[in-house]
User: Fold this.
Amino acid sequence: MNLRLIFDIAKLLLLARWRQTLVAAIGVTFGITMFIALLGFMNGLNDLLDGLVLNRVSHVRLYNEIKANPNQPVNIAFKDKKLHNFISSVKAGQIREDIYNNAAIIKKVESDQRVLGVAPRITTQVFFNSGTINISGVINGIDAATEIRLFHFSDYVINGDPMNLMHSTNTIVLGKGLADQLLVEIGDIVQVTTPAGNRFPLKVIGFFQSGLNDVDKIQSYAAIATVQKLMAKAGNYITDIQIKLKDIDQAPQVAKEYAGIFHVDGEDIQTANSQYETGSFIRSLISYAVGVTLLIVAGFGIYNILNMMIYEKMDTIAILKAVGFSGKDVNRIFLIIALTIGISGGFAGLLFGFLLSLIIDQIPFRTSALPTITTYPVNYSLVFYVIGACFSLVTTYFAGWFPARKASKVDPVVIIRGK
Assistant:
C-alpha cells in the first residue's frame, strides 16, 4: 500500500482525537522532562560529594606503613624444626617512616606514561597551643604549586593565597574549624609543639575549608621545608608520594606494581575510598530507577489511549480492510501514531528537561560548609539525553505495537455484520 496514504490516514486519526493525542504526548513529555532533570541533578550531586573527598585524594599513595615484622626471631631460630610457635602482643619494629631514595622514585614515576603528576608530602602530628590548652592537629607538608595543579587545593582555600607557602617560610594554612578553635585571623602567629617537644611560631596566611567539618578541625598545611624544619629532618625527608593517574581505573594495578618495585607500601584510591564509590553507585541507581519508572508509566498511558482509539475506530479499521488495506498496513498506521506521539513528546521532554535543569542550576545554594558552591549542582551529560530519547522511542513503540497488532487482526466482516 502507498506509504504516503498510510501516513495521511495516521495523521487524520491523530487529529480526530487530538485531545487524547495531546494527553499521551504530555505524558511522554513529563516522563522525559523529569528523567533528564532528575538524572542531571542526582549526578551533579554525586560529582559534588565525590569531589569533596576524591579530588583531594591521590589515585596511588606510596608510604611506609607501621607494622610488625612478619619474620620474628623465634620463627627464624626454629625454622628447620617441626614446631609451631604462638606469639602474642607483637610490637612494631624499627620502621623507617620516610621513603628511602624518594627523589629517584619520584623521577621514575614521573616518566611513566600512565602518570599525570606526582606530589611529595610530609605528614606529622602536632599540638597547637592556645594559652594553656593544647589542641591536637596534623600538619601536611606540601608543594603548593603541585597540590593546586593535581588536587585543586586553591579551590578549598577560602582566605589567603596558598602560593605564599612557597614564597615565605614558617607559614601555615589552617583548617577553618581549627582556626575558629584557636581564635586566630590572617596574619596572626600560632605556636606549634612537635612530638619531640620543640615549639615553633608559624604565621597564618590562609584558611582551608574542605566541607568536612571533622577534617577542618584537624588539618593544616605548610611548605615541605617548613615541616622538615619542625621535625628536625633533612631536606630529603619525605613520608608520602601522592600519584595522580590519567586513568583512575588503573590505580589498583599501578599501586601493586610500584609497591613491588620500590619496596614500599602502596594504596590505591579504590581501596582507600570504597565507601564513597558505593554511595555514588547507589544514588545513581536510585535516580535511574525512578526515571525509568516515569517513562514506563508514560508508556502505559500511550498503550491505554491507543487501545481506546482502536475500540472507537473499529468501523474505520473494518472499512480500511474492506477496501483493500492489509493487516500489515493497519499495523503500520497505529505504529506511526504511537511513534509520532513518542517523537513529539520525547523532543519536547528533552527541551523542557534541559530548561528545568537550567532552572535548578540557578537556584541559590549557600552553606558555610561548602563556601565554593553557590547554586545546586547539575550534570549536563549528553548520555542522559541519548538514553531519554532512545527510551521514549522504545517505550512508545511497544506501547503502540500491542494495540496495532490487535487492530491488524480485526475481521471486517464480523464488525460490519455487527453494525
The chain has a mean pLDDT of 81. The two ends are 27 Å apart (CA to CA).
